[in-house]
Amino acid sequence: MRFDVISLMPPMFDALKAQGVVGRALERGLAELKLWNPRDYTSDVHRTVDDRPYGGGPGMVMKYAPLQAAVEDARKVSPGAKVIYLSPQGKRFDQDAARSLAASGQRLILIAGRYEGIDERVIDRYVDEEWSIGDYVLSGGELAAMVLMDAVIRLLPGVLGAADSAEQDSFMDGLLDCPHYTRPEQIDGVGVSPVLQGGNHEEIRHWRLEQALKRTLERRPDLLKGRRMTAEEQTILDEIGLASGDAEQEQEQ
């Protein structure tokens, strides 16, 4: 899967390329990354890529022409690519979006904006989708582009070592992940559940589901709203609710 990223700060992506899961995927050719700098498409001595906004106000806006040229060149080498602009005005990027992009295998051109944003005419003419990684403002779209790439690339076939690693991550089935433990068995008197040490795979699966539901209910109850529960999941939630009610009654007494 190929990513063409348009950015004024290409060196920021060195961290993504040099190490970790994404770095190894790029090295093995499971994903491809090409960086395009709009400054390379300027003709003035200062390599100007921004200008004051019409109507006044603070900040600067990325100019149309350098972005247009960069997008056009990226489209030439990635025909049929989907153009995505990382923007606070975009749809919320989540695990479902990452899974959809990874499954499509479609080439992506990511525009990382800077300053107050980019000329709206670039969006109107070239951008297919706008995505936001959260309700906050960053100094630029580079970090957002790297977040999107990391989330998508790790879902590509062959990227992760274990075939089911991604499927067990948080949010893959709409729940937070369960707790994980490794050796030693005891740390400062805190041990590991006997279920995880018993070797019964069905009991371990049920324990992990129970813990995932409990953690989701405590930390992100919004994820459970509208979720279609299996009979097993509903039984577990009912039991958690009963246990919570019993604890409250004990406190009142």
UniProtKB/TrEMBL annotation:
One of its GO terms (molecular function) is tRNA (guanine(37)-N1)-methyltransferase activity. Gene3D superfamilies: 3.40.1280.10, tRNA(m1g37)methyltransferase, domain 2. S-adenosyl-L-methionine binds at G113, I133, G134, D135, Y136, V137, L138. One of its GO terms (cellular component) is cytosol. Residues 1-225 form the tRNA methyltransferase TRMD/TRM10-type domain. Specifically methylates guanosine-37 in various tRNAs. Belongs to the RNA methyltransferase TrmD family. This is tRNA (guanine-N(1)-)-methyltransferase.
